[in-house]
Specification:
By secondary structure, this protein is an alpha/beta fold. The chain has 33 helices and nine strands. Among the domains are: 7-170, P-loop containing nucleotide triphosphate hydrolases (Rossmann fold, 3-Layer(aba) Sandwich); 184-262, no CATH class.
Length: 736
């Protein structure tokens, strides 16, 4: 390393130790987020200057142990050993330790001491330790560990300069000599195995023995029978695997703390204890949790609308401006209806994502997230999921995209993947226009006033019931494996760090736009092109007709606004209505002709032709070719189906916010011969299908693989088809 090359400083710590807070405090705005190749783990790198020494800060994933049991968990080990492709080995390792829970946190530190790197221990939350009546002899602890120990309060920015000085002073020094020593019998077996994997770091050879079914077994070519014989010999010699590791490390830790940590005779009752008595209570804690989740859900579902509506309006305005400014033609239509509409379909999700991650950051940073996971773990365990899966699944009722991104709080890879794969089954807000359209058309007339609401509830209930069932099947088959022991630290409550919250929101929004957004945009443009080509003379004919009625349309719009204002004020509207009637009579045949041309255009498009070709496959569901085409066209976004149905049924591109237009479209669908059974089959299909490229793009981004989004699309489509088929025939059998 030259003076011009920044030293690489890695940060390692248990979850909830303040590692991210410390990283943000030291790096400020000078950091970025990326992904390690081939895994889902995010990498955070920052730059800073410690004194006069330039450094690169590397924030490793929070973990309780450096025992790699999944590809994601292997990342931290590979980085520290210099085995991660494209990542230089760190020059120094900073271990962040919770001073109020030293024994548990030092377990990870003992593993870090064996990595062959200089180490500095950042003793965080010393104020919390003091409130618990703990007294730590920091110099003595430093001598016992053989590395510098610096007391800090990361959230208060205290002790950071001392930490910087300790890091600079330690750069270039020898690795620590003090660390737990395994029994001689164990080391003998390590030496024997080392000959079979030459060039492998000693730490990985030890992990090969200790981690039954871990990643080192998959990476190192050692016969399974050899490992089994090694472990059997160790067990007979009084070194049972994996218990020997915990025994060795915790004995060493207790010895190190014997003369350095003083505990009170009776632990004082803290505010955390008093709050936990309520917040983790089986009854009161659950009620409070449900209330908190309702507020989160309502904010995502309803609060985001105040930001999403202006985005949607801005998209419409920009598209209209482009059409009015540029000459008519294929390029203008592509720019306005393809690219701008595609960009809008990406950006419109940002409010939901930002709001969700703001809540997640607040709940996690204040310490409540650990309690929420604890409360929900028993329930979620029945489906083979983690307690932390509850919030992502609940969030998916608003939108699956932020819900899937929220699975990052789940440490176990299989639990996280299972949650990602079932999150799209939760009925999101984008399905509402389809539900509203078909329920209004088929299930209002002749039914009790409460029946439509019941049907809507049942549609949501289908997803809520099916999701854990599918998760259970996945965890029993494709994602089979032992359920990890639920380990959750209960950190002390504290005020959230505003900078951590803001940074989390910024990173989540930026990651979505940069990675998932590109796939969504590309798919949206492709589907638009398939729906609009070949164009023939349809655009010119439609534009000519539209221009011919532009003036009377403006007049009719102005009169309708006057009528609405008069009705609100309780004033008579007869004269205005009389003035409006001849305009509507003039507009009606021309608008009908425009709608007819639009329907013909969509029918003859590439997507229309494809829909007619595959329609026989959907005929058993009671669908005609128009419903089939609309379902295919809705792949970029579910709500698109309403506008497409409006065109194909010659009602124009129906606005989901226009109640009267939705009613007319529903009546037209019902009068076309589509019966109740077919309508119910379409409802059930849309409950369970994955008609959302945005969701698939985010699954690809979060799993770093194309296999899982393809798998999600296939299994959800098959599930939706089978369920819709069953619904159709049951409804037909009941007379629907």
């Amino acid at each position: 390393m030259t003076s011009a090359t920044p030293a690489v400083i890695a940060f390692l710590g248990n979850p909830n130790t303040g590692k991210t807070t410390l990283f943000n405090a030291l790096s400020g705005l000078n950091h970025r987020t990326g992904n390690y190749a081939g895994v889902t783990v995010e990498s955070k790198k920052g730059s800073a200057t410690f004194g006069t020494t330039p450094v690169t800060l590397l924030d490793l994933p929070g973990t309780y142990s450096l025992a790699p049991r999944s590809p994601d968990e292997m990342v931290a080990v590979d980085v520290l050993l210099g085995l991660q492709a494209g990542e230089p080995r760190p020059d120094l390792l900073v271990c962040i330790v919770d001073a109020s829970n030293l024994e548990r946190n030092l377990y990870l530190t003992t593993q870090a001491l064996e990595m062959g790197l200089p180490v500095v221990v950042a003793l965080n939350m010393v104020d919390v330790a003091s409130s618990h009546g703990l007294t730590i002899d920091v110099p003595a602890l430093s001598r016992r560990l053989g590395v510098p120990v610096v007391p800090i309060q990361a959230n208060q920015r205290k002790g950071l300069e001392e930490l910087r000085q300790a890091v600079v002073a330690r750069l270039g020094s020898a690795p620590p000599a003090e660390h737990p020593r395994f029994p001689e019998t164990f080391e003998t077996e390590v030496a024997a195995l080392r000959t079979q994997v030459p060039g492998t770091p000693d730490y990985l050879v030890r992990r090969l023995i200790l981690d039954v079914g871990g990643q080192t077994e998959k990476r190192l070519a050692v016969p399974p029978e050899t490992l089994a014989a090694t472990r059997a010999r160790l067990a007979s010699a009084g070194c049972p695997i994996p218990a020997i590791e915990a025994r060795t490390r915790y004995n060493w830790i207790r010895d190190a703390l014997k003369d350095t940590l003083t505990r009170p005779a009776q632990r004082p009752t803290t505010w955390t204890d008093r709050l936990d008595a309520v917040l983790t209570h089986r009854v009161w804690g659950t009620l409070i949790f449900l209330t908190v989740m309702f507020l989160v859900f309502q904010s995502i579902f309803a609060g985001a609308a105040y930001l999403m509506d202006p985005i949607d309006a801005g998209k419409t305005w920009l598209a209209d401006t482009v059409k009015a400014t540029l000459p008519a033609g294929p390029f203008t239509r592509l720019l306005a209806d393809g690219i701008i509409a595609g960009v809008g379909s990406v950006v419109i999700f940002l409010p939901q994502i930002v709001i969700l991650f703001a809540f997640l950051a607040l709940l996690e940073d204040c310490g409540y997230m650990a309690r929420a996971a604890f409360l929900m773990d028993r329930l979620m365990a029945r489906a083979g999921l983690s307690g932390k899966s509850f919030i992502p699944l609940l969030s998916s009722l608003a939108c699956a995209i932020p819900g899937i991104m929220a699975t990052r709080v789940i440490e176990n890879y299989r639990d996280r993947l299972a949650t990602i794969l079932v999150a799209p089954l939760m009925s999101c807000s984008a399905r509402l226009p389809v539900y509203t359209l078909l329920i209004g058309a088929f299930l209002t007339r002749g039914y009790p006033w409460w029946f439509p609401g019941l049907v809507m509830f049942l549609l949501y209930l289908i997803g809520i019931v099916v999701a854990p069932l599918v998760a259970w099947v996945l965890k029993a088959t494709l994602l089979a494996g032992p359920r990890p022991v639920f380990v959750m630290e209960m950190p002390a409550y504290k005020w959230p760090d505003a900078w951590v919250v803001l940074r989390r929101m910024f990173d989540a929004g930026g990651a979505f736009l940069a990675r998932a957004g590109t796939v969504i945009l590309a798919t949206s443009v492709v589907v638009w092109a398939l729906l609009n080509f070949p164009a023939g003379t349809y655009p010119e004919r439609i534009e000519e007709l539209t221009a011919s009625i532009a003036e009377p349309q403006d007049q009719a719009k102005a009169l309708k606004e006057q009528i609405a204002k008069a009705e609100q004020a309780g004033e008579p509207t007869e004269e205005l209505q009389a003035e409006l009637k001849p305009l509507e009579e003039k507009l009606e045949p021309v608008e009908a002709k425009i709608n007819e041309l639009l329907a013909e255009w969509r029918e003859q498009s590439y997507l229309g032709q494809f829909g007619r070709t595959v329609q026989p496959a959907f005929a058993p569901l009671g669908w005609d070719w128009r419903i089939t085409v609309a379902a295919i066209a809705s792949f970029p976004a579910r709500e698109v189906i309403v506008g497409t149905l409006g065109i194909l049924y010659k009602q124009g591109e129906t606005d989901t916010g226009d109640a009267s237009a939705m009613t007319r479209l529903g009546d037209e669908i019902r009068n076309s011969g589509i019966g109740l059974a077919a309508a119910l089959s379409l409802l059930v299909f849309f409950v369970l299908c994955c008609q959302c490229v945005s969701t698939l793009a985010v699954i690809r981004r979060e799993t770093r693989s194309w296999f899982w989004p393809i798998f999600t699309f296939v299994y959800m489509t098959v599930l939706a088809y089978v369920a819709a088929l069953a619904t159709f025939w049951i409804a037909r059998g009941l007379g629907g």
